Amino acid sequence: METKTPYFKYCIVPLYKNTTVKVPDKIFIILPEDKIRRSKWLKACRRNEKDISQSSRSLHVCEDHFNVSIIKYYMSIY
Ligand SMILES: [Zn+2]
């Protein structure tokens, strides 16, 4: 199940354009593939679902948009 191409994570929030290359120390959270859960995340990030390519499997949001304690909470239940 490994991907062939090397890939890096990038933040879906356009203003920030954070990537793991630019800011390797940041926490990048992968959004759930499940549509309902994903849409909740997008709302939490104030992103319109329609702005996001639904074909993308790996969507990430960097920690800038979340309170760290929320991140830890979500990571623990994910
Ligand atoms: Zn970000």
TrEMBL record:
One GO MF term: zinc ion binding
Span of domain THAP-type: 5-78
Keyword Iron set for record: no
Entries under Pfam families matching the protein: THAP (PF05485)
Listed name of the protein: THAP-type domain-containing protein
UniProtKB keywords: DNA-binding, Metal-binding, Zinc, Zinc-finger
Transmembrane intervals: none
Top-rank lineage group of the source organism: Eukaryota
